[in-house]
Design goal:
The chain is of the alpha+beta class. 39% of the residues lie in helices and 25% in strands.
Amino acid sequence: MSTPALAPAPAPQRRHRAARRAHGLTLLELLVALTIMALSLGVLYRASGSGARNAGELYEHQRALLLAQSLLAARDAIPENGWNESGESAGYQWAVRSQPYAAAPATAPPGATVPPLHELELSISWRERGQDKLLQLRTLRPQRLPVAAQGMP
């Protein structure tokens, strides 16, 4: 008679390896996880740094625009001989140049006085992080009308 074949009992080494894997990470898995985390932090750091840099550039650009608005608000009309001036304010260099605007004659109602227009170019420059920045604006402004003498017909 033959005896029934018995299945071999699991080796103690196999049980020990399976139990060890279930309890923690291997050194290779830990290194891969740390590498992924380091790369992710590097990308986040770069993104937040560029956001702060862009905010600084935006602030300087807004200050230049504020200066431009102030210069334009200083004169609502241009003298007959034009407006050519330059200067510096708070680290910004500015220049204003005007010339008569060559446009087709306007059709104005009879009796209306239409002043000639001047093309105005406003340039503001500044230095930021070793780079020269420039803001240029162009607009049209009316020429100042001559003041009528009082008491004269």
